[in-house]
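Continuing the batch. This is chain 6 of the set; chains 1 through 5 are on the previous pages. Same settings as before, nothing changed between runs. Recording input and output for traceability.
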Amino acid sequence: MKTTPRLHLKQPAALLLSLASFGLSHLAFAQTTTWNGANLADWNTGTNWSGSAVPSGAVTVTINNSTTSFISATAPTLTGNSINVSNAGSGFSVLSGGSLTGNQLTLNSGSNGTSVAGGSLTLNGNANLGSNATTATMAVSSGTVDFKAALHVGSNTTATTTARGTLTISGGTVTQSSTSNALNLGRGNASAGTLNITGGTVELRNTQTSNLGQMARIGGEGGTGVINQSAGNLTSAGGMVFGLNTNSGTTGVNGGSGTLNLSGGSFSTSGILMLGNNTGTSGTINFSGGNFTATNIQNGTGTARIGITGNAGGSSFSATSIVLTSGASLAFNIDKNLGINTIQITGAGTAASIASFSGTLFEFNTVGAFTEADIGQTFNLVRWTNGMMSVTGSALSNLSSTSFGNLQVVSDGGTGSFLQATLLTASAIPEPSSYAAIVGVFIGGCVLMRRRRSQSA
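Output for chain 6:
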């Protein structure tokens, strides 16, 4: 009779132990820990969590009981799939002395209790602020936040889901430290994302300067993105696009609208700044104060608009190059009570700064009551240095009963020049037939100025 070798008797036991080990590790990886503490309770107290243990390691954390926990000391590092926060009132606050390192962060279902106020938050995975139709919010008032991967605010990649998200920064330092992952603000299917900056510092370190699909994207694929900045500093190491449509990951969704409202603080970006890259998209810059710096402003085949309003005295709008072609507009709100409004285009070093407005619509909007006594008042609308401005086939539009014209180029007494407009009448708009003459005067001024400079050189 043949006997079974002893080695074979051990294999089932070994197999069972192996399966058991795999099952335990798999269960540990898939473990979810749920917050069940009271409002403003301590994150680092075990009894505030299901299982009576502070979450750590490869666990997924869920906070959905409409209460907010606080972190005032170093919390265990989380390497699980996500920190999920949902329902109004739910969230966590990282206070002074506290720190939390996690992987992904997902805020949805109108959650509004997540904030950083003096502590440190580091996210190694993607952050999704607002992934459904109810707006989710996050606030940073002091401390540091480091998004090491992509940052999505009111953004998704489907054609059927609408996202809403708002990130408000009033102090501290918020960094997207990845050099390859992008900011998506308001992307996909009527989604909306808002970034409010009233203080602090925002650093976008994505170094992409030409590939629109990898740059910071404000409003894309049917979504609406808005940056409202009244103070603080925003810097982007790469390019930005306001109003993007590539249909990447959002089949069937078209359009996209992106807007920058800058009234204070400092905004700067490197690489191209694109306004309305494709048909059906729109990109808008509304400038009323602060300091704006860009390397290269362009418009695509969508709608582009740069609006200058309010009293920009003491502020600056600088760009090494502004190229606006057909479909774009450069708009000025000329306020009688506030005086001259100037957009300044400054060259870098000895490099020429050339603003080309080919087929661009110049809009002159007036604020305040101009009278017949004001006729003849001249406004400096654009000042540029280290280069010449060229205008080809541009049109003029006056959107109120007050009209401006007599566009001319004059020296500023130094290395720069002004584009000036003069109040022609306080009650009538020039006939369309006069536009060509006005533009001709301006182009002649450009040529004359260029010839004078060539002769003096």
